[in-house]
Specification:
With 535 residues, the chain is α/β, with parallel strands linked by helices. The protein has 16 helices and 11 strands. The longest helix has 50 residues.
């Protein structure tokens, strides 16, 4: 709850101007809701005295006009909440994106990608709901409740005390009923899932059933799961129906008690008072139950703030040293083991790479090639020893400057959706002219019909993906000082493979001023390697 209130406090400070507009709408809506029962009481008293159909018609028209005005402002209020929620949602997601971009890679992996996906989507939506749908509505309903009590007290303070007590009791009944209702629903849902699982298992093992004497077993399992589901439903429905009816019937009991009290004290304006108090009773009890429901819903969303904070706390502002062109890379007794494991992926590695080096990296699957590349790019930090870039420890170098100097092309890359043109511009972090695009498209022999990327690259064939990656390599290789290339030509037909291999060889020969790493499984490759690393 503390994290929630801290978030609300910061949001109020940041969006105070926008929130002031909302406060104005709340005051107008509250004023209208307070006026409606008072005006209704006044109108009914007037109609009773004048006994005039034309006066009644005027009152009805005025009442309709007020309701129409209220509905119009309420629509604007709802749109306002959507806009406020959208601002907050964007703000939270931008902060999470920044934290994930700058946070420690291993620490993020410890959270898990699926968990992070859930945080980015469901938990941020929970923040949106907790603020726009629940938090503000709790404040509004509480304010309305206080206003209604004030309006009621201006007419009959004794009945106002009774209404306050009734609202408190209604809130308590609704709050205490909430958990048993939720538990009953959860039990039914669990048994329903068990029953569904039993049916799914029967279909999944259809071949086994048809070739073995499993009919009696399968029917018995189905009956058992169905019986458990129905038995749980019978027990749960008893509690559900009773508690839900009790909540709604309490409303009726209070209305009946107010009506009975007013009939006992009948006077000149008893009809008007009766309508007035029944209206106020409905508003007060509805607001009270809304507050309880909103508070309950809000409490269920609070863990989202813990999850979001866990990611935000990983944010590490880029305060590293700008490195410029990388002329030398040195591994000093580098070892690495992933967190939570004792087994070392790499151990005691000592290498020195300089401008002009063409390094072949090879090794069996699981030998550490991917880890080696992640250490080179700064994605991972050594658990033993250190990696020096131009003599500077890698941990002290700005991650942004590494992005500017290192180009890594993986054959298993997840593509950005959009056009091929927009993909290249985003990955290269610079504009790409139509002339550049045409030139590299011709160089890699990518068909002109391939212009869109969808499904993170799955809309293209394997060969088309490799050619788009080669386009990125050709456009990006001139502006970096370190190239790390995976086997882009792997899995292609003979002609395409030979063509991309020639392009890669030409590129390597042109970049004598760069440090080039090539991950290769081929025993014989027509590239003049200066160093070989077997992992």
């Amino acid at each position: 709850m503390k994290k929630y209130f801290n978030f609300i406090r910061k949001s109020i400070i940041k969006h105070k101007g926008f929130l002031a507009q909302g406060l104005g709408m709340i005051l107008i809506l509250t004023m209208l809701q307070a006026i409606i029962p008072l005006a209704m009481r006044k109108m009914i008293s007037g109609v009773a005295v004048r006994q005039s159909a034309s006066f009644l018609a005027v009152c009805v028209l005025m009442y309709c006009a007020v309701l129409l005005l209220y509905n119009g402002i309420d629509v604007i209020w709802t749109k306002y909440l959507d806009m406020l929620g959208g601002r907050i949602l964007q703000e939270v997601r931008e902060k999470l994106y920044a934290a994930i971009s700058r946070g420690d890679y291993e620490e993020l992996l410890s959270v898990g990608k699926e968990k992070m996906k859930n945080i980015l989507y469901m938990d941020t939506l929970s923040v949106y709901s907790s603020v726009a749908c629940y938090g503000i509505q709790i404040a509004v309903n509480t304010f309305l409740l206080l206003v209604f009590f004030g309006v009621s007290a201006s007419v009959n303070w004794r009945l106002s005390i009774v209404l306050m007590a009734a609202a408190a009791v209604g809130f308590g009944i609704s709050f205490l009923s909430r958990k048993p209702i939720a538990d009953a629903s959860r039990r039914v849902n669990l048994k329903m899932k068990d029953d569904n699982q039993t049916l799914n298992e029967y279909i999944d093992r259809m071949e086994l059933t048809k070739t073995n004497h499993l009919d009696e077993y399968s029917v018995g399992k189905m009956k058992e799961s169905l019986h458990n589901f129905i038995r749980t439903s019978l027990k749960s429905d008893t509690a559900l129906v009773f508690l839900k009816n009790m909540i709604s019937q309490f409303h009726q009991i209070v209305s009946f008690a107010i009506a009975a009290f007013l009939s006992m004290t009948a006077g000149e304006s008893s009809a008007a008072d009766l309508v007035f108090y029944l209206c106020v009773v409905d508003l007060i009890l509805t607001a009270s139950q809304n507050i309880e429901s909103l508070v309950y819903s809000l409490i269920k969303l609070l863990p989202a703030y813990e999850n979001i904070d866990r990611i935000l706390e990983m944010d590490q502002p880029d305060t590293g040293e700008k490195i410029g062109r990388i002329r030398e890379i040195e591994f000093r007794d580098v070892g690495f083991a992933y967190r939570g494991t004792k087994q070392k992926v790499l151990s005691g590695k000592n290498y020195r790479f300089q401008q002009g080096d063409i390094v072949r990296i090879s090794g069996a699957n699981g030998s550490g090639k991917s880890t080696f590349v992640k250490l080179l790019t700064g994605l991972l930090r050594p658990t033993e020893g250190e990696i020096l870039l131009n003599g500077i420890p890698g941990g002290e170098v700005s991650p942004d400057s590494l992005k500017n100097e290192i180009l890594y092309i993986s054959q298993d890359e997840i593509f950005l959706n959009g056009t091929v043109h927009s993909y290249l511009e985003a990955m290269l972090n610079r504009p790409v002219s139509e002339e550049e695009l045409r030139r590299v498209r011709e160089e890699v022999q990518l068909d002109a019909s391939v212009t869109e990327i969808a499904g993170c690259g799955l809309s293209m064939s394997g060969g088309q993906r490799k050619k788009v990656l080669m386009m990125r390599l050709l456009l990006g290789s001139q502006n970096v000082s370190v190239l790390i290339l995976d086997e882009l030509e792997a899995g292609l037909d003979v002609d395409a493979k030979a063509h991309l291999t020639r392009l890669k060889k030409n590129l390597v020969e042109k970049r004598k001023d760069a440090v080039i790493f090539i991950i290769s499984h081929a025993e014989h490759e027509d590239i003049p390697f200066t160093k070989q690393i077997e992992l």
